[in-house]
Structures are given as C-alpha cells and as structure tokens.
Amino acid sequence: MISKNQSRAELKKRISLIESRQKKEERILSLLTPLVANCNTIILYRADKFEINLDPILNQKEFSQKKFYFPRIEGGNLRFISPQSWIQGPYSIPEPVGDDSMDPKDADVCILPALGFNSRGCRLGRGGGFYDKSFSGSFATNAIGLSFSELFPVEFSEENHDVCVGKLVLEDRVVFFK
Length: 178
Fold this sequence. Notes:
Elements: H1 4-16, H2 21-35, E1 41-43, E2 67-74, E3 77-81, E4 85-88, E5 94-97, E6 101-102, E7 109-112, E8 116-117, E9 123-124, H3 130-134, E10 143-146, E11 167-170, E12 173-176
C-alpha cells in the first residue's frame, strides 16, 4: 500500500494535468446541487488550486436562502463560521470572520475538501489533520466529498482517524458509501 505522502505528491501532479477542469468542476457542482437542495445549513470550504472550486454555487439562486459556514483555523483546530468578511489564512486560503459558528455535527451537510478519496470514501487531505480532528466520530452520512473521476479511487495507508464521506460527487456520477 502506498503511503499518504506518496499519494499526496502523486495526486498534486495529476490534478494539475486534468483536462477541461473547469467544465468538469461545473458538472460536479451540477450533480451536487440536488444533493443539498433540502439542506439549510451547509459547511463549505474555499478551494486552493488542488481542490474543487465551490465559489460558483454561492451565487446560484438555489442557494440564496441557505446558511453557509466555512473553516477557520484556531489553535490547531477548525471553527466553522458564517462569514461577515474574509481574511487571508495561514495557508493562503481565505478564512471567514464572524461570530456565528456551528459544530459540524449540527450542519445539514458538510462538503469536505480533499486531494482524493479511497474506495471506502476516506479522504486524503493535506496532512495537517484539521478535518480529521473536527470531523472525528461517525456521521459520514452528512459529509460529501468532491473529486475527479480520473483521480478516484486513490489507495493509501488509511488510518483509524481518517474521515470518510457518505457520498462522493464526481463529474460523471455520485458514489454512495455505507
């Protein structure tokens, strides 16, 4: 089995080579939309160059009445905040500023960033452990991952603390996990 660090390095190379990436991201978001249609509180993320960009859904009419929460790193943990404004975070990713926060277990749905997912739906993140700590426990049914078909699945040395999602949205299908 390949190590997480080897998988991360390989995925970063492969992600940068994806053809028609913007069109594939648009298809992923179109498949995601009906999955969250009945959700009122949604945890999202602001993407870096290795993740699916979720910014376009924030301006869609279907999402105008929903409450969004985004991660902010505080003391080595993530706090999910409904943004009143944005600041540049320690990893050059915008982070929310605001007072309204939410525990991820209370959200209707959590859309998690990742470099990739294995065949059981466990996410391979960037290695900081922030999401693993914040999403520990077994509530994967309200967690959704996003990836590209040519990157799924990626096998890696899975660990007990790795967060797994209940659904994975690819540009050509939605995969459901137990």
